[in-house]
Amino acid sequence: MTKCDICRILTSNEPQEVLFPTKNWRVTLAHDQAYLGRVYVTALRHVGSLSELSIAEWNELGIVVKEYERMVREAFGAAHFNWNCLLNDAFLEDEPSPHVHLKARPRYKTPPTLNGIEYPDRKFGRRHDYAEHVVGAEELNRIANKLRVS
Question: N or C: which end of the chain has fewer CB within 10 A?
Answer without folding.
Answer: N
